[in-house]
Amino acid sequence: MVAFTLELQHALQAIGPTLLLNSDIIRARLGASALDSIQEFRLSGWLAQQEDAHRIVLYQTDASLTPWTVRCLRQADCILIVGLGDQEPTLGQLEQMLENTAVRALKQLVLLHREEGAGPTRTVEWLNMRSWCSGHLHLRCPRRLFSRRSPAKLHELYEKVFSRRADRHSDFSRLARVLTGNTIALVLGGGGARGCSHIGVLKALEEAGVPVDLVGGTSIGSFIGALYAEERSASRTKQRAREWAKSMTSVLEPVLDLTYPVTSMFTGSAFNRSIHRVFQDKQIEDLWLPYFNVTTDITASAMRVHKDGSLWRYVRASMTLSGYLPPLCDPKDGHLLMDGGYINNLPADIARSMGAKTVIAIDVGSQDETDLSTYGDSLSGWWLLWKRLNPWADKVKVPDMAEIQSRLAYVSCVRQLEVVKSSSYCEYLRPPIDCFKTMDFGKFDQIYDVGYQYGKAVFGGWSRGNVIEKMLTDRRSTDLNESRRADVLAFPSSGFTDLAEIVSRIEPPTSYVSDGCADGEESDCLTEYEEDAGPDCSRDEGGSPEGASPSTASEMEEEKSILRQRRCLPQELPGSATDA
User: Fold this and answer.
1) Is position 219 annotated as part of the catalytic site?
2) From 3.40.1090.10, 3.40.50.2300, 1.10.274.10, 3.40.50.1000, which CATH number describes the 184-367+395-472 domain?
3) What pTM was estimated for this model as a whole?
């Protein structure tokens, strides 16, 4: 637990000032009796000061339900339940107590995995035993986190770690961005074979150093996104996607899958097998990155967002083109699911609703050609075939069935697409892939190269324009610093105070040296009152205030006119808490 909190603190410090607190640090700073019930009000005031002074306060609980653990649960905005992914998902004693207590904080399950270990499995079992968890994350951890070192050796190791900036691509940095509302999401749109360009853009995104914390998509975007969420590597994603695209060029399998066209031209068995070969029986919960995809529920006439369940089934459902494949029956409720492109072909708004600060949305939908031929009230396929085979006949521009389906997907959500393109949170990208057809899976490498070259050009411009750095900058820390700077300029002698701070004056032992905390966090020798008081409120060796004179009426009026102005207080106030 100590190594985990230090690792997380290191990642959080890249976002903003972070303070780590545990029961040992509290006792060292505030005295051995700081956690006693009689000191609760005093401790609350001191913790409030720390939360005001730091962007993030990281509370580490004890191993049992101690008063400090209860205090941590009360103070926290988000509670992390940390477990080892390769162990049995049994409930611990603290978890059982947490389940029975009325704690309204957000609860996240964090499963740790070794770098050289296998991928996540059995996540559903962990979540089923913790129905009160609102979400989960898988972290691939460095070897040092699992090393068996004494506390002294561990702190010595992490002093070296803290001297280096955290890797933005590490899983702990991803956890830090999720916890602080700085998630970067990648959303991949639908468009058939044109979606192969997604992988090229992903490769360029990796080379530009842009981390991805959340992946979502529709249709072919759901397929590519699921591969990337599982592999977290554009190269490996390309390899597996190319193998699948090759199977899509087969002629024999589709012919054998033909059926009497009542609901669709094909039974769907061949396509199901091709998707299942890629993902096997993996669950969405077992992906390394948080993932979602979108389908159209024609039973309820609504959009469905899938964040859990059978991965291959929901990917297949999101790729179900009307007329080609039958709707997929949802194994949860039996509803009929179709291609998500009919309702939301680029679901950047879904990623935003899941907490993403920035959404990189890649659109590969068809750009409709408007210069089409007028053929009258009916159309003969034989006539079209003759026009195409006859080299001397005038060319007729009429969309085929696949293109019509693609146009339907685009037209039905054009309004939503325009909203996404104009939103401030979205970085909209569209590779130049209009020359490729929906079923051009045989041109995989060519489409991939188009996406890669486009991505290199775009992300190169981002690097020169500091767009990537702005994505990684914590907006709240920036706003907080600007607000404090404005307060200093407007009220140079004022500062933060509250009732708890007035009543309790915290003076930790001057001989204490912080162990495991960053140097220069704060001074424990003087209280804020002594610093603000200046020479007028300095103390002599006997402890009596010098030069303290009653304020005149005019001075009192002047002090009242200044917002949150601190006054010089006498040494003792009636009813004040005793010093530690």
Assistant:
1) yes
2) 3.40.1090.10
3) 0.79
